[in-house]
């Protein structure tokens, strides 16, 4: 397993639409393991493949509390089937937008169809943090970031800050 470098805003890769995974084979499972290792190292509670530069429809999540046993979950080709009318608000962050947090309102509950790491079709109903995290990650598969759900003013401020930081890094040639 390998920790991969994270793709950071404003890298245009983050706006790419990821392609479905056609066959769940050992290479896909290796990719999932690399994603999990990268997520645990960060640390984060979720990661989409595009965040390590792979435009494939796969995401990993572990929302187990610190100190509890690890509970890695792999979702391949996930599709949201239903969303509740009820909304919930969470303070979100993103490993591709380090150290920026904002409240985002999303459906409180969703049901999702996906393939597990053995390629078997599964369906789950999620609420709470899992529902929020799944929606955040599925957004990544569609080139959408959590800052797209906040005000335009806030979003433009964040993008400007990260664009400047990227330019500084570039000129320092690190
Ligand atoms: O680590 C993460 N925490 C988080 C907190 C609230 C809502 C969503 C998330 S996902 C984020 C990791 C990440 O960037 N996944 O794409
Ligand atoms: Ni994210």
Note down, in words, how this protein is organized.
The protein has 174 residues and is an alpha+beta fold. It has a single domain (12-167), classed as Peptide Deformylase (Alpha-Beta Complex). The protein is 29% helix and 29% strand. The chain is built from 3 helices and 7 strands; from the N terminus they run H-E-E-E-E-E-E-E-H-H. The chain has helices at residues 26-41, 128-141, 152-172, and strands at residues 46-48, 58-61, 73-83, 87-94, 97-107, 109-115, 121-127. A 5-stranded antiparallel sheet has the order 1-2-3-6-7, sandwiched between helices. It has a two-stranded antiparallel ribbon with strand order 4-5. The radius of gyration is 16 Å and the shape is globular. The two termini are 25 Å apart.
List keywords for this structure.
174 residues, alpha+beta, Peptide Deformylase, five-stranded antiparallel beta sheet, two-stranded antiparallel ribbon, 7 strands, 29% strand, binds ligand GNR, binds nickel (II) ion
Summarize the structure.
29% of the residues lie in helices and 29% in strands. It is an alpha+beta fold.
The proportion of residues in beta strands is: 25-35%
- Bound heterogens, unique: ligand GNR, nickel (II) ion
- What distance separates the N and C termini? 25 Å
CATH class: Alpha Beta
Task: Please name the CATH architecture.
Answer: Alpha-Beta Complex
What characteristic shape results from the CA principal axes?
globular
The description of the largest β-sheet is: 5 strands, antiparallel
Quickly count the domains: 1
Number of helices: 3
Looking at this structure, what is the CATH superfamily?
Answer: Peptide deformylase
Strand order of the largest sheet: 1-2-3-6-7
CATH names the topology as Peptide Deformylase
The share of residues in helices is 25-40%
Question: Which structural category fits the helices and strands?
Answer: alpha+beta
